[in-house]
């Protein structure tokens, strides 16, 4: 059964979180639920933050008390938001992230919790059970000397006023008459509002009528006395009901300076195990453990977060933050905060020295009574609604290592006394923070070295441009950034081109790429280091705004190309800090590496330095891949120029050529072939192999192919053609290469046969396959070209009958190896024996398949296969 109820609505502004904490704290203390106040305040703070900061809607807070405990519900106006479920196959958010953290805390602290949806709201509720207490003392204070007791008048007067359910006074005791000079007849039956001077609490909207309906309420207001003056009072209200079920409110009032008589004890942090043990043993407790608690977090982020939370509670502030100094002490970096949008400010940097937009109070304790009078004195608090702040430095051996600050929404909250208390705490933790920072930095540096070594190995392992671009992006996401884009610059006169985009969420890549294509590329500046680039986040926010306006019918009626969800998701993905690092190789900017964070996040300086080291290695790898690709393209183009563009159709003869270049394609091979018409009815064919590869071999190959055509069409016979080609090769001098060459001339005959005249100069002998399956050499070996001056060659005549095949290959076929085995002339003969009745194309394909299957390793030499076949039963 519900015994008490309190509700309040908070506007979607950051300071509402602190107001909601105060509302829940005061409500639960008024109900006598001090044991669960701290947990309730923490959970409410996180849930209200989700509503007013992240969802951007008002938050409705409802507190209900029953016999077993307290149930608190926080409702926002954004029911579409998802909740992270522990066992639903989803990734659980990190506790340091703001989004979803409140639900994780509910699961950890609450007795029960849940989420309820309506068409317009989402309610997140949690139940905190009250511990069972034995009958006895509720709370007690220590014995104090007389001069430390609170001061009151000679006679303490406690006014007792009872208010009926209509808000009218039904009872007025003698102390009320003495305090306010009204007789009971003057006030009974009149509304309390006629006498109360009620200050409204900012952000809650709770008035006197609402306060009288609460089960418990405690606070200050005023009562107008009979003389017209307002008497400040401190009041404690208790809602009761009589035997008939009639509800009324009993109000106990004292003069405000005597509030200690009614005021509930201030909440104090419970002593931890370490301090209790120290007190039990009679030894002083460690000041560090007293402030931080025991056990202390073993990681830097945990230590810093606990520090700001304890500092805020110690000074009863609305927010606290901690900044760490850079190595040169010229900047401070935000590392932890509470009560502020920490995700937005994390790793942001602020200059230390005095000046506009700088953190001028870093080296000495400082108290700012009203920040509105000194704009920009504490840049971190700009736009947060905080007005008063106390900041103290963290120092180790006189060196500035950081700054700790506590802020409040009201002006004039802090004095030098609070600054001294906070400085005392900062001195206790400064050394521990510095040790943890150095430990983290050492781990980061070791990890950075390992990361760079691995990155260098991966980048050195490929010479493919596209693969290099992909590796660059994959090494940065998600290790260094949430998303990455790589721009390339072909030459100094070219515009940057978006070449690769990657996001840690693959569903965001297309939207991110579309956005970046619409934004002008960053300027290719060779200046080293990372520079901030705001164009993507600005464009994303503009696109999200336009989409939202269209969805509300406030903008252009044209339907957007993407849904609001996709646009808003893209804006969130690129809404944080974006930096650009130049890719400089051989004194030229060849591209830019762009790294980005999601909404309101910043890069750590250590991460930017690591990214800069990676960009230098990546730039050299990308330039090497570019040079290799250019060399490969040139080699392949040259190789194509050394082969005939197309083969002529020879009446009555089937022709098939297969050419396979070995290696990675960046060297020009020495094998070549040709088939060309000489004159009417006569055709020349050749297949050769120049010693070696590269430009020198290509020069001889080009010379041989073009010389063969020219000399053959001039009417020279086979021996004369090869002798003149031999002389031309020798004239090249030191650039000459010896050449094996099979050259022949072919004449199709009327009877369906074909007459061939061939000269085999040091080349593997051509093989003739007859219809009966026999295979025999079709020529005799003669000296190769490019070695001797006086070369005498002769030609041999071969007649191919219908069904016969002439097979010509380079030594890449016959010298195919598997260990100590080699295919050889005999192996090729065996393969050709099985090709009876096959077409020329089928013969060439079977030979190639046999060569490839002979060994598991890829071929190490070029291969050329030329098959000529005279079909059977040709009609002339």
TrEMBL record:
The keyword Nucleotide-binding does not apply. Residues 264-287 are annotated as: Disordered. Keywords: Hydrolase. It comes from Streptomyces glebosus. InterPro entries: Bact_Sigma-Reg, GAF, GAF-like_dom_sf, HATPase_C_sf, HATPase_dom, PAS, PAS-like_dom_sf, PAS_fold. SUPFAM superfamilies: GAF domain-like, PP2C-like, PYP-like sensor domain (PAS domain). GO terms for biological process: regulation of DNA-templated transcription. One of its GO terms (molecular function) is phosphatase activity. Residues 269-280 have a biased composition (Low complexity). This is PAS domain-containing protein. Residues 160-190 form the PAS domain.
């Amino acid at each position: 059964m519900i015994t008490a109820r309190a509700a309040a609505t908070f506007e979607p502004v950051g300071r509402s979180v602190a107001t909601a904490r105060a509302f829940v704290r005061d409500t639960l203390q008024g109900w006598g639920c001090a044991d669960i106040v701290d947990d309730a305040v923490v959970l409410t703070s996180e849930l209200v933050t989700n509503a007013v900061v992240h969802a951007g809607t008002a938050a409705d807070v409802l507190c209900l008390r029953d016999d077993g405990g307290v149930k608190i519900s926080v409702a926002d106006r954004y029911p579409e938001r998802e909740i992270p479920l522990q066992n639903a196959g989803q990734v659980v958010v990190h506790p340091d992230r703001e989004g979803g953290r409140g639900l994780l805390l509910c699961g950890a602290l609450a007795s029960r919790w849940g989420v309820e949806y309506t068409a317009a709201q989402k309610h997140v509720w949690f139940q905190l059970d009250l511990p069972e207490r034995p009958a006895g003392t509720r709370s007690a204070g220590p014995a104090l000397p007389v001069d430390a007791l609170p001061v009151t008048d000679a006679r303490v007067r406690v006014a007792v006023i009872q208010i009926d359910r209509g808000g009218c006074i039904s009872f007025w005791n003698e102390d009320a008459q003495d305090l306010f000079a009204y007789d009971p007849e003057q006030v009974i039956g009149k509304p309390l509002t006629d006498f109360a001077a009620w200050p409204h609490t900012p952000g809650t909207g709770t008035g006197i009528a609402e306060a009288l309906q609460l089960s418990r309420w405690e606070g200050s207001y005023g009562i107008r006395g009979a003389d017209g003056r307002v008497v400040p009072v401190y009041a404690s209200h208790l809602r009761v009901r009589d035997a008939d079920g009639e509800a009324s409110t009993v109000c106990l009032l004292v003069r405000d300076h005597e509030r200690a008589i009614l005021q509930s004890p201030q909440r104090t942090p419970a002593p931890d195990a370490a301090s209790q043990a120290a007190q039990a043993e009679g030894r002083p407790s460690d000041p560090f453990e007293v402030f931080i608690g025991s056990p202390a977090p073993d990681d830097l982020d945990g230590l810093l977060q606990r520090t700001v939370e304890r500092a805020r509670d110690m000074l009863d502030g609305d927010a606290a933050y901690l900044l760490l100094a850079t190595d040169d002490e010229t900047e401070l970096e935000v590392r932890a905060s509470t009560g502020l949008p920490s995700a937005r400010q994390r790793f942001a940097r602020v200059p230390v020295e005095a000046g506009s937009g700088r953190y001028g109070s870093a080296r000495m304790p400082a108290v700012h009574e009203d920040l509105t009078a000194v704009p920009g004195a504490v840049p971190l608090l700009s736009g947060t609604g905080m007005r008063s702040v106390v900041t103290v430095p963290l120092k180790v051996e006189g060196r500035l290592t950081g700054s700790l600050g506590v802020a409040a929404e009201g002006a004039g909250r802090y004095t030098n006394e609070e600054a001294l208390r906070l400085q005392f705490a900062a001195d206790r933790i400064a050394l521990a923070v510095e040790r943890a920072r150095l430990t983290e930095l050492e781990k980061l540096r070791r990890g950075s070295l390992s990361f760079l070594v691995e990155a260098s190995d991966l980048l050195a392992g490929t010479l493919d441009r596209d693969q290099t671009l992909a590796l660059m992006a994959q090494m940065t996401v998600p290790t260094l950034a949430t998303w990455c884009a790589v721009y390339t610059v072909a030459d100094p006169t070219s515009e940057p081109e978006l070449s690769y985009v990657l996001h840690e969420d693959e569903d965001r890549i297309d939207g991110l790429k579309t956005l970046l294509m619409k934004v002008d590329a960053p300027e290719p500046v060779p200046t080293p280091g990372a520079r901030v680039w705001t164009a993507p986040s600005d464009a994303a926010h503009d696109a999200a705004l336009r989409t939202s306006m269209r969805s509300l019918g406030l903008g252009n009626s044209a339907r957007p190309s993407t849904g609001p969800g996709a646009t808003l998701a893209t804006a969130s993905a690129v809404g944080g800090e974006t930096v650009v690092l130049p890719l400089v190789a051989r004194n030229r900017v060849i591209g830019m590496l762009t790294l980005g964070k999601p909404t309101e996040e910043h890069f750590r300086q250590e991460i930017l330095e690591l990214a800069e080291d990676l960009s230098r290695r990546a730039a050299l790898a990308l330039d090497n891949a570019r040079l290799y690709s250019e060399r490969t393209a040139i080699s392949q183009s040259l190789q194509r120029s050394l082969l005939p563009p197309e083969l002529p159709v020879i009446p009555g003869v089937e022709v098939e050529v297969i050419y396979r270049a070995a290696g990675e394609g960046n060297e020009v091979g020495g094998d070549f072939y040709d088939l060309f018409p000489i004159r009417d009815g006569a055709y020349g064919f050749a297949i050769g192999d120049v010693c070696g590869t590269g430009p020198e071999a290509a020069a001889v190959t080009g010379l041989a192919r073009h010389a063969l055509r020219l000399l053959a069409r001039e009417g020279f016979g086979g021996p004369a053609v090869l002798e003149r080609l031999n002389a031309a090769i020798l004239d090249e001098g030191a650039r000459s290469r010896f050449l094996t060459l099979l050259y022949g001339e072919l004449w199709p005959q009327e009877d369906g046969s074909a007459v061939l005249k061939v000269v085999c100069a040091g080349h593997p002998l051509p093989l003739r396959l007859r219809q009966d399956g026999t295979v025999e050499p079709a020529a005799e070996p003669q000296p190769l070209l490019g070695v001797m001056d006086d070369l005498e060659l002769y030609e041999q005549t071969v007649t191919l009958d219908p069904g016969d095949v002439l097979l010509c290959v380079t030594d890449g076929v016959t010298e195919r190896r598997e260990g100590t085995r080699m295919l050889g002339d005999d192996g090729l003969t065996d393969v050709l024996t099985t090709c009876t009745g096959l077409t020329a194309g089928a013969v060439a394909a079977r030979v190639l398949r046999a060569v490839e299957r002979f060994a598991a390793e890829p071929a190490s030499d070029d291969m050329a296969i030329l098959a000529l076949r005279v079909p059977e039963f040709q009609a002339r």
